[in-house]
Request: fold
Amino acid sequence: MRRTTGEEELRPDDGGRPDEGGRPDEGGTDRGAATERDAGAGTESGAGKGAVDVGQGAGRTKKSRRKKSGKDDVVLPALGFIGMLRFVWRQLTSMRTALFLLLLLAVAAVPGSLFPQRPTNAAAVDQYIEDHPVVGPWLENLQLFDVYSSVWFSAIYLLLFISLIGCVVPRTAQHAKAMRSKPPRTPRRLSRLPEYSAMAIPAAAGVTPSSAIEEAAAMLKKRGYRVDVRDRDTGRPSVGAERGFLKEVGNLLFHICLIGVLISVAVGGMFGYSGQKTLVEGDTFVNTLVGYDSFEPGNNFDRGQLDPYSIRLDDFSVTFDRQSEANYGQPLDYTAEMTVTESPGAEPEQQVLEVNDPLSIGGTNVYLLGNGYAPVVTVRGGNGNVAYKGPVISLPSDSSYTSSIVIKAPDAQPSQLGFVGLFIPTAVVGKDGRTVASDPDPLNPQLLLDSYYGNLGLDSGDPQNVYALDVKGLNQLNGRQLDTGGIVLKAKETYKLPEGKGSISFDGLKRYIAIEVHHDPGKMAVLMCSSLALLGLIMSLFIGRRRAWVRAGAHDDGRTMVEFGLLARGEDYRLDAERDKLRELFGRKWLVENGQPDDDDRKDK
Amino acid sequence: MGVNETLGEYSDLFMLLAAMTYLVAFLGFAWDMASSSKTLKAVDQRAASAQNAQQTTSKVSTVAAGAGAQAESTSHEGLTGPSDRVARIGSGRSASVSDSVAAQSMDYTGERRVAARVGVSITALAFVVHLAAVLARGIAADRVPWGNMYEFCTTGALVVAGIFLGALTRKDLRFLGTFVIGLVLIMLCAATIGFPTPVGNLIPALQSYWLVIHVSVAVIASSLFTLTFAMSVLQLLQSRREAALAAGQSPGMAFMKRVPAALNLENLAYRINAVGFVLWTFTLMAGAIWAEEAWGRYWGWDTKEVWTFVIWVVFAGYLHARATRGWTGTRAAWLCIVGYLCIIFNFAIVNVFFSGLHSYSGL
Ligand code: HEM
Reply:
């Protein structure tokens, strides 16, 4: 249905009125597949008045059509407040506004891909602002670092959805009515319809106009049309038929489901949560707030929502490509063996977590998002006591797992110790004498560290990034840049710090994984709604909604003349095929060879 | 998970061969266009002068037609065919314009077009070689051949060529030949020069059956949009030409006589775009489902997701435009073109220059 203005959308579907929404005057062309408005002129002046017309007139010309469409262009009505509101509402729910808002939405979504976004990468945003001290704050004020929850982006899509609701509600009512009402009156001049054909039944066949119409009605009905026979007892009976109501149903379903998607997304955002945790082999994670490294709750999150299941990482293995020369060392497989305990006291269960294959436990999904090495170290203070013992997570920065690592030992006595540096799984000495990583597997693991002592600042109570060491106020003991050189530790080695500050040993190596826990209660609804939307879209785009009218009359020479015309509502390129089909059906029924030369040259369509 | 590198090298070789064969086909189509323009220029000039003469008469006939519409007739003879139908069908397009564009139906006519035939047969040959190359690549890698930029490009080009050849069996779309085969050539060149990647296994993030579903549907949808892009560009050219013809000027671009009228291009493009849009909607949904499986959220406004969304909205806009007064025709064609440019951007620029979760370009 080609709706054009708000007014037309609200108009009852009587099918017989000329559609004033003029057709586009673009490019000096006219749409070949005409829609109902073309039939209008004929219907309006009364149906079944008797004439199977010669129709020597050319159809309404383009010129007059233009004039008509010009008339209902926007003219501000001099109405009161209510009138004004109605006017605004009509404008908002018009096709033109919908189109404008859609295009605006497309444009508005773009900046989010050009600038770093807070929700996905806050660090990059800070970096950007630092690098662009002038524009940065401006962009920040314009919410360009948080496009998808910005005021302007929200305004566009909310307006669009208000427009959508304003569009869908009246259309649904209108369509419900259309589905209950009878097919529209028979246009006076069927020949005006976009598809038209006529045939003459020989007198010998014994078909009267009224029996022809009854039979035509039956045949149309069988083809899925709803039919209505009129002027039964006159000399010019006719049948009106319509099919394809599901097209509009599909369209409405599609648009309504879009609203459903939006609501489901909103619900998911409000009641869902997500959190991250790194797990070294052997570690257990318990799904409580304190169990997470970081946690992002929705607005309406309640901590009672968390199901206290626990999962332990038993083993994590990575397979690298060892066959292909070109892709040597590319990861092929990550497999995490987990022990899952659904609730405290429940029977533990072995499960495998892989990329693209999350665990689902306690209403959440657990995803494998990252991995790396956690060297096991022992740090002793100057007094010889163990200050830290255990795995330390290192952050890989390339495909050979060159990883940065920070070790903090606040318990070291007499002074606290801190280490910054690199972990390299397979260390080789490059041409320039520097140690580099050459393979992701731990073939020759090394720790390359700088060491510091002093107050690490952990006692102040301020939260600190465990992956960074603030060296301000610390005294450096040694370092790779210094003449003394840094610490180079191979597996199982121990290094004694200068000035008797203590020692560090590299005892072993474990892997760790980064998991992400998600709970999104809106997810299923989003899937349902979007699947239904897709169904509706297919119905809407590929079902042909069409009307057909058949009229019969007796010729003076005893033949029964039958003519019929078809009209598409909306885009329907198979209308001519339908005409041919009807012609074939009627022909077979009434035993005429398809002899009558067709009335026009529409075969060339 | 064995990778057969020898077979991979054969695949590369075949790909080059296919590209060269396409080049010949491209020349064939170009020759067809060029040769037609010579013979057709004369026709156009005649048409233009005829149009000048006709314009005066058509005004008169419009008035007469208007009067005729008022008249009542009860004659039964009208059953065989009212004369107004001819006027309506042709309305907005004078006879001389229809003479100067290809037949509306885009069916084959008896006309001999040697160059075009050569173009089609060589395209078919190139397609076979191309298919062999893509299959060899898939077999060499032991997986679907669309896991990195090189493979998206080469497989995408194969689908474009395949859909074009398939459509040619039903409709005479040879006028699209230069355009479509040109695009296929560009895609193959981009792949072999811009993103050469040796065969390899998939990284774990891509090891999912969603790769098969999501990407293949995306590639098919993009191929359909490639066709409609070509049609929309031609539509814009053709409608300018029609306007010139209608105004009685010599329109130039005589090769466009091989091309159907703007309106027919628009209608066919719409039909294809409707299918493309459904497939793109599916791509978007499948991508979201996959994202949910791999990263734990179905939508995260990752760069790639943003652009997939933008493309979807632009084509939704296109479908709306076709139902909005004043927005069909030229403007709808522009929307279709913009949508396609977004696809190119999403593929070429976003994959290469933007960082995001979808960093699988293999560069
Ligand atoms: C949320 C944004 C929207 C999207 C993504 C969207 C998308 C679409 C699509 C893809 C179609 C073509 C398929 C079909 O016929 O069902 C369509 C058709 C249609 N839409 Fe929307 N739409 C949106 C909002 C609106 C709004 C706000 C209105 C009301 C003004 C509207 C009114 C229509 C109408 C009347 C049609 C039928 C056009 C025809 O007959 O060809 N849509 N829409």
